[in-house]
Each structure stands twice: as C-alpha cells, then as structure tokens.
UniProtKB/TrEMBL annotation:
It comes from the Eukaryota. Belongs to the group II decarboxylase family. Pfam families: Pyridoxal_deC. Keywords: Decarboxylase, Lyase, Pyridoxal phosphate. This is Cysteine sulfinic acid decarboxylase. Its cofactor is pyridoxal 5'-phosphate. Gene3D superfamilies: 3.90.1150.170, Type I PLP-dependent aspartate aminotransferase-like (Major domain). The modification N6-(pyridoxal phosphate)lysine is found at K303. It comes from Littorina saxatilis. One of its GO terms (molecular function) is pyridoxal phosphate binding. One of its GO terms (biological process) is carboxylic acid metabolic process.
Amino acid sequence: MATSRSSPFLDPEVIKYMEDFNQLVMKEALQGGTDRKAKVIDFHIPQELEKIMKLDIGSEPETTDKMLEHCKRIIKYSVKTGHPHFYNQLYSGLEPYSLTGTWLTDALNTNIHTYEVAPVFVLIEKYLMEKMSSKIGFPDGEGIFCPGGSFSNLMAVHLARFRKCGPEIANTGLWGMPKMRLYQSDEAHYSLKKAGLFLGIGMDNVIPIATDDKGRVKADALDAQIQKDKAAGYIPLIYMATSGSTVLGCFDDLNAVADVCSKHKVWMHTDAAWGGGVLLSDKYKHLMSGVDRGDSVAWNLHKMANVPVQASAFVVKETGLLQKGNGLNAEYLFQPDKPYDTSYDIGDRSVQCGRRADAVKVWMQWKALGDSGMGERVERAYENADYFTRRLRESEGFRLVLSEFQCTNICFWYIPPCLRGKEETPEWWAKVGKVAPLIKAKMMKEGTMMIGYQPLTPKKFVNFFRIIIHNPLCDFSDMDLTVSEIKRLGDALTAEDF
C-alpha cells in the first residue's frame, strides 16, 4: 500500500489492484451477474454468511491481494439483480451507460449543493428536471433528486403543509393548529405513514381510502372522507395518488382525483415512483393522464428505467416553492456575492445538505438511449408481461389475482396438484397461502430465480406471487422458463408440506 504523500493512484501496487478489481467486476459482477446460466443467488443464512465473509477488522492493514479476495466474496454471495431471472423487486437490470455515470460521480466525489463545487453536475440536474417536468406536463416545474421515493413523498407532505399553513409554520410549528389529514388509497405505499410519523402529523391522521376491484382509488369515497373531515374541523392537506402501486401495479384515475383535490383545495401528489416510467412511452403514457393537474410527482428512474439504485426525482409544479419551503441560506455555503448567478446553488432547495449527484447516471443513460430507446425499454417490459399473463391463463394450476393488470407487476397463485379439485374453504386458502413461500425457498436454495410474494390484507388475499417484469434482457423464453420452474417446484409439493 502507498505510504507517501503522493497520490495513491500513482502507486504501481494500487494501479494493479484497481486494474484487477475492474476486471473482476466486469467478469463476475457484470458479465457473470447477467448470465442466464449462472445463479441469481448463492444463498446462506446470516449465521453461515457471517463466517464466510470474514467481516472482522483487525488492527493491521491488509494486502491488496487480500482485499481482492474480499471483493470476490462480496460478489459471489450477493444477489445478482441484473440477472434476467431476478423478478423480486421493482428494480432490476444493469445498464452500462448509467453505471459509468455512477462511477464518474464517485470518482469525482463531490456534493451537489453549490455550483462552485459541482458545476457540471448542477447543470445536469437542472436540465433533467426541466426535461422530466416537460414529460409530466409541468411547463414551469422544478425539482431535485432525493434519497429514495419515500423521501420524495415526505417532501410532498412538507411542501403541502408549507403552502397550506404559510411560512409562519416554519417558525411556530404545529402548536395550536387544527389537526391535519393525509389521504391515500388502501393500495398506496406505506411511506405516507412515515411522513405522518416524521412530520408530527401522526400516523392516525393518514387515512386510507377504499379501492375498486382493480386496486384503483374510489374518487367518490375520497370526496366523502374529505367532506367528513372538514366538518369535524380537520385540515385536509394532501392526497397521495398512486401511479403503479407496489403490489398490484394499479394506476389511480388521476383526472378523477384531480377533480376532488381541486374542489377541496387539497394538494395532489402523484407517487409514480414505480409507474412513472410510462411517461417515457407514447403507447402507455395515457395511464397517467391527469398527472399535469397535480402539484408534485415522485418518479424513481432506478425502477422501470433500469438506472442503478438510486435515482429518485421529486418534481414540483410551482417554481420557487422548494426554496421557499426549505431555504435557510446558511452563510458558509450560500453567500450572495459569488462570481456567478447564485440561483444555481441548488442545495437550499432540499432538506439535506449533503446530496449525491444521482442525476448524472440518469443523464448518461438517457443521453445514450435517447427518448426512443427509453420508451422502447418500457414497451418491451409490457410486451413480456402481457405474454407472461397469457401463459399463466393457459397453464394449469395458475390463478390470476386480477383479471387484468395495468403495469408489469403480475400477481398470481399457483395451486399445486395436491390442492386441486378441493372445496375452497378458508382452510384450503390457508394452505394455498403457504405455496408461494415454499416454492420461493426452493428457488433461493437452488439459486435459479427470485420472485416476491405477499398477502394483501385489505383484499383478504393470502400469499401470492408478485413477479416484476422489466429487466431489458428478458424475452419470451425467460417467461416460458419461469412458468416451467414454478410448476416444477410446485408440483413436487405434497399434502405433508401443508
């Protein structure tokens, strides 16, 4: 290891280590991690993995050879989320241009709070926010990248409260104010409850609104609940619409929601963390018709757009509101007498001080693929999802949770032969609810693929599979293999397993 004051990157030993590391990552993480013939995961329980990984840190430094061995183990025992058969989460796939964007920002190691320390990165984020605002339909919109969609949703509540209650709430707080109410569908993400918890509004004041049989909010139920709360003296603050729900992939009717929000002067925020990708496709953007009538949008490009985690944009219709709601003008950062237009010092628009330049990897990928390439990715995912749904309909033992799906989450039960042809009593359904966990455990042990599962309590659904299809490497053959793999593992289940 280098011990002199010269740059470590001039040290021949470090240079060789970096070169060997790059080759290792290319071969094992990138090429190996996207190879259909390779495992998605080499799974071990935590107690076993702790021993394998040799996590203890000693008092003496380790050699570069030892450090490479650690890197090899990290890659070997990590989940390969770029693998075509990783269907477990709303993120998957690997894209070379956005990956190089991540490497660039880490190599340059700066903070995107002021133009003086991140001139290129600030300009990239500013441009991307303008482009994304245009896609949404906010002609004068602005935004920032946040550390996750949950944070973006929290920001929406924060700004809604600031605009509703006025600047004085920043100084006096909630003391003596009427209670506020936050609204979301019963299919929406739990992050709105987190916002209620963090912002002092309270989780009891986050009100779930009933959805229809396809998982879309009932706008008339929202209207009725807001009227009821107003009569009781509450302040209706925000409705968080859902565009691509986490489980069922449902899209609220945003025009119907906008009508209700406009009527009651309620902030309309669209959580499009998952489904926002449809705005990239001329074929599917109609699913978010009406989003332009809202006040803000959360859009995670590390999901349907396949940018590396994380790339979470928060876009607001009203220019200047981010600065008004968050700005504190810290003197050591945001001096007014700099030799450039200080409106480019964007850090004060965020609750954070330190912030990664996540926009760079998004810009790199979008620049490389263009609008057409980004849209084609989305449309290919829908084609694969439609094909997979058809295969489930024609294959014995599969039962769809919904009659049709709006996104590329496909939810279904598999009924193994030992449970078929029996009366569908609550006891029978309880056994069906054990099928997905049993099959997934076998998948992970063999390392063949990963598919998520969950119950859905509001709909009284027992555990079912939720497959997320949007890896750009996937094709119809992967869909066929997935059906076959579930059948293979499911058909091996016997009555004794339940």
